[in-house]
Design goal:
The chain has about 220 residues and is an alpha/beta fold. The chain binds S-adenosylmethionine.
Amino acid sequence: MKWLPTSLEKRLRRVRSRIRRLPLFSTKSRGPFRQDWYADEQLEELTRVCELVRDLAGSVVEIGCWEGKSTIALANACYPETLAAVDHWRGNLEEGQDHESIRVLKETDVFAAFQRNVREMTRQNVRICKTDAFDFLSDFEKPIKFCHIDASHDYRSVRRTIEMLLPRLVPGAILCGDDYLSAHRGREDLEGGVERAVSELLEGHEHVRNFWYWQYTPRGQ
Ligand SMILES: C[S@@+](CC[C@H](N)C(=O)[O-])C[C@H]1O[C@@H](n2cnc3c(N)ncnc32)[C@H](O)[C@@H]1O
């Protein structure tokens, strides 16, 4: 980067270091969500891409729900269709036993909070699938038109999730998820995280800040 003027180089370095420090989890409490683990502005992106599949046939799925912040936005965006909400509510085990979510689960009934939030803030179009994501995907036989992926952020589990989803997608389906920047490919603790898995498997994906998305367009279409 020697050719860049020094001031621009400095600014770039500042932006990069800010991105590296973006938290995967903020413990700031907001409204009914004790942990605010999904950015408000990202909910707009999430509902916008969900709108794109409205006219397609297929299931709408979310993997990684926690207290339901993204679940509620999605359920309301896809209504009257049903959203399959998949989580074992055991925390981000793939990221290690000392992960923040596992600590919180020892003190809080997150699943009860999820059920309450979904009951109060949706029109009851959520099918709760309290199970491991990989078991769910092995058993799920219906075609999928939309899946929001927001479970563990390590490279291996995100890659495995995407690999299991791909054969089930209908043409035009959307895959999307959180933490593209915060679980970036430089994160050795996550083996390259979300960014590496998405970049390796989903050619042509895009991201808006921390939110990534990709549309399945079969070759020749
Ligand atoms: C980052 S939180 C989800 C945040 C949520 N989307 C929101 O809007 O607040 C990650 C969730 O993924 C779940 N999870 C992690 N690995 C999983 C797996 N293998 N199967 C099912 N759920 C998993 C955790 O239990 C946790 O609830």
